[in-house]
TrEMBL record:
Cofactor(s) listed: Zn(2+)
High-level lineage: Bacteria, Bacillati, Actinomycetota, Actinomycetes, Micrococcales
SUPFAM superfamilies given in the database record: GroES-like, NAD(P)-binding Rossmann-fold domains
Membrane spanning stretches: none
PROSITE patterns, sorted: ADH_ZINC (PS00059)
Keywords: Metal-binding, Oxidoreductase, Zinc
The organism's place on the tree of life at top rank: Bacteria
Name of the protein described by the UniProt record: Zinc-dependent alcohol dehydrogenase family protein
SMART domains the record matches: PKS_ER
Domain Enoyl reductase (ER), residue spans: 7-335
Family: Belongs to the zinc-containing alcohol dehydrogenase family.
Amino acid sequence: MRGVIMHTPGDVRVEDRPTPTIIDPTDAIIRIAATCICGSDLWPYRGVDHPDHMPMGHEYVGVVTEIGADVETLQVGDFVVGSFFASDNTCEICQAGYQSRCVHATGLDGTQAEYARIPFADGTLVSTPGRPDPDLIPSLLAASDVLGTGWFAAVAAEVGQGKTVAVVGDGAVGLLGILAAKELGAERIIAMSRHADRQALAREFGATDIVEERGDEGVTRIKELTNGLGAHSVIEAVGTQESMMQAIRATRAGGHVGYVGVSHDVALPGEELFFSGVHLHGGPAPVRRFLPQLIQLIWDRKIDPGKVFDLTLPLEQAAEGYRAMDQRRATKVLLTF
Ligand SMILES: [Zn+2]
């Protein structure tokens, strides 16, 4: 089969890879219907992480082609959406809703490919109610990571009726955090963005205000918009020192930060944190917790998160997709077959 391999930072190639087969009786094999490039794939691409012939990709929707002997809830032919971490969905951690930290949590062996092996298929994959219309596929694909992650960030930030929410980061996760905040009843949603096209999508997803300033200036603007108090809920969807401190300082005492940007060299100042009175909650999103609800919202055409994809390319042109995201010519790239 064909699949994306990152040889070294910046060197993305589509190559022949072995077609995956069932290894454990709880596995399923799926034929990928659509996959995409994640903002987090840019960390190795830019050399912040150190890839060495790494199979790429962790977002996927597809059709089950083979199941192991112990798989009970899925059948060959099912159209499925899965999370970027495999999870058993039965252990105490999963039952508490933290499937990304399942005691059996394991990553996937590169879903930017024609086929993928999904461990713990019963616990990881969720079937759609039927074969989706083609126009629903981008939104279902978004549910497998960026929508699920933005949704978790909003839940972790305790977004709810009547609250003011600020969103740090205007990538796909930040934009879908806005969508989630709107769905969860936020009264006011402040998007922090300085890109006109992303501001427009932010407004379409429910942003009521745009703040272009960053860092301390951005914090000052949020305070000005919230009677000097800060937002009730802040979504952090970047993962840098600056973005994390911007999120914490833009939150009012007693408020909540939901942080989902993959942390890179973030160090929190203990004394400032102590006196802030701010709740912090986040980490790798337990997307599996939200998948049934998100799939239904998409199936019923109540939300359209697939709008975050602004470039679609055949898998064979994945390298151009990485370049486009790296150069910010695209927010999120969908790869098709
Ligand atoms: Zn588990």
